[in-house]
# Entry
Amino acid sequence: MSLHEHALYLFRSAVGTVRPAPMLKSAVKLQGGSCPQLLVKGQAFPVKRDLYLVGFGKAVLGMAAAAEEILGDHLVRGIINVPLGIQESLQRVGLQEMLLKPHSKIQVIEGAKNNLPDTEALKGAVAIRELAESLTAEDLLLVLISGGGSALLPAPIPPILLQEKEKLTKMLASRGAAIQELNVVRKTLSLLKGGGLARLAYPAQVVSLILSDVIGDPLDIIASGPTAISSHSVQDCLQILTKYNLLHNLPKSVETVLSSSPSKPTAPEDYSHVCNIIIGSNRLALDEAQRRAEGLGYAALILSAAVCGEVGRVATLYCQLIQLACLGLTGLGEGPLGDEVRGNLLQLVAELEIPGLNLAEFLQALQELGPEKPVCILAGGETTVRLQGTGKGGRNQELALRVGLGLHRAQATVVSGHPGRCEIIFLSGGTDGQDGPTEAAGAFCSPELVGEALQEGLNVEAFLSNNDSYTFFSQFRGGHHLLVTGLTGTNVMDIQAILIRAMERS
# Structure
C-alpha cells in the first residue's frame, strides 16, 4: 500500500470508530420490569410514563436508529432534524444500520443544505419546540445532539427573520470568526439554543446524549447548547460583534432582541431536570487511528485533539513539524537547521495557544524515533478560514493546499532536496464527510504537488488567494487528491494525518 492508501485507511478507521450506533449502544441501556429505567453510562433515569426523542445534527440519524432499537415500545414519538440528502447518501453506501426501520415512530426532517439554516430546518425546529412544550413531569425527553446541530435547529427570537440571522452568521464566518464565537451569537438570538430547549421541556426529565464536534467538549457550545446552561451573556455577543466590526451594521430586529435580552446567563438551578452526557469525541477517533497506524508498522504520535487557529498559520505549523521529522529521520535533527526549525516551531505554538499541546514532550518523542520506522503524526480539531476570494472550498482542502505550498517552498533545503530525502503525504478531512459547500471531505497533498500542478498550468497561489481550493483539487490530476467519502453519519471535527518515511539513498 502507498502512503496515500495508508492515510485513507487511517482516516476511514478513525471515522468508523465514532459511528453513532456502536457508541450509543455501549452508552445506553433500557432496564425493563415494573419500574423501567433508562441507564446512561451508569446513571439511572426512571421512565415514569412516556418517553420521547428529539435530535439534530449530522450524526443524529444513526443515533436515532440505535436509540429506537434500544427503547422499543417505550418510545412514544420522536422528531429529528438531519442534513439534506443524508438518508439517500447512507443508503447509497450501504450503511443500512444508520437508517430508521420502516414504520419508525421517529419523524425525519432533512434540511440545512450546505450546513446553513433553511426553511426545512426551521420547520423541524418548530415541531421540536411544540413537542417539548407539550411534555409533563411524568415524561422523559431523550435529546440526541451532534455537530451540525446548530444549523439544524434554527428558531430565531421574533422579530428576527431566519434570513437575517443567516446573513449575520455568514458575515461573521467570512471575517474569520471561530465556531465558538459563531455559536455564542447564534444562541443569543435563538429560542432553542443556549438552554432554550431544556427550559421549554420543563418539568420533564431531559437526558441529552452528545457527540462532540467542538474543541474541549464545552456543553454550552456544541450545537449552541440547546440543553446546557449558557455561560455567555448578551455582553459576550456584543463583544464578538464589535470584534468583527458588525455592531453598527445589524438589522433592526437583531438590535431589538439584543437590547431586551437578559444581561446575565440563566441561573444553574433552572436546569436541575437536565443531564448532559458526552458519548463521543475527536480524541476517540484519533486513538483508533493511532492504533491502526501502529498495526501498519508506523511509529504513531498524537499531536493534539484541539488544533485550532487560522488555516495559514496551522499549515505553517504542520510544515515545520514535517521538516523536523524529516531531519530526524535523515540524521540531521541535531544540526543548525534542526535548531532553527525547532525554534520557529516553538514560537508558533506559543502564538497559536493550542489547548493541551505539550510540544516539548512531543518533540522528545519525535527525537527518540529511529530512521528504520516510518512516522505517523495524527491531530484533530478545527481551523478557521478568512474569506478573501469568491472561490469554492473548505477549511480542510485549503489546509492541505497550503501545506503543499509550504512543503514545496521548503523542499530544496529540507524535505526532498536532501540526499536522505523523505516520502511524505498529508491528509486533512472532516469526519462528517463534507468540507464546506463541496462533496469532498478534504484533500491530500505532498511536497511534489505544487511543481506538478505548475506543469499542468495550475498556479496554487492564485487558487489560494481566491479561496478556491476545491476547484484546484478538482482540476489537478483528475481530482485524485480529493478525499471523497460521502456523508458519514457522524461528526467529531477534523482529522489530519502526516505519514513520513525515509527513502534509501541512491
